[in-house]
Specification:
about 140 residues, mainly alpha, about 70% helix, globular
Length: about 140
């Protein structure tokens, strides 16, 4: 299913009209119509708002091979935080870190609470190391 089809399907399942979704994510109803028709692709920040409003994951909306609306939903807040702080490169780094470290749990299942704690710890370590690198290697002041 395409992004457009998933947005429409999820919106209908959530019981939103196009206008209600537009109001929720702070865009025009015309923009929502364009997303659902495939005529317009929203920015990454808007995709997060759509996913949050419809209670589905970013992965579900953006990965045509993903059929589970909740797949990796626990990662969304951390990915968005990395995007706000460090842009696209931060998102790539954070996603790689979370995906690679998920192999630690191969074969085992974690509760949602355990996943949240794990992602919080990884995110905190990542952000702390980015800030330390910025402080150490960032621009020097001439004072």
């Amino acid at each position: 299913m395409t992004f457009a089809e998933k947005v429409k399907k999820s919106r209908l399942e959530a019981g939103f009209t196009q206008k209600q979704l537009a109001d929720e994510i702070k865009v025009s109803a015309r923009a929502v119509r364009s997303y659902e028709s495939g005529a317009l692709n929203p920015r990454q920040g808007t995709i997060f708002l759509i996913a949050k409003a419809l209670k589905v994951s970013i992965k579900y909306l953006t990965d045509e091979a993903c059929d589970d609306p909740k797949e990796e939903i626990e990662k969304d807040e951390y990915i968005v935080d990395a995007r706000k702080r460090y842009g696209t490169r931060g998102v790539r780094d954070m996603e790689a870190l979370l995906n690679e470290s998920a192999a630690l749990f191969a074969g085992g299942e974690l509760s949602q609470e355990e996943k949240d704690l794990y992602y919080q710890a990884i995110t905190k370590a990542y952000l702390k190391s980015r800030e330390a690198a910025k402080e150490k290697f960032g621009k020097k002041s001439n004072t």
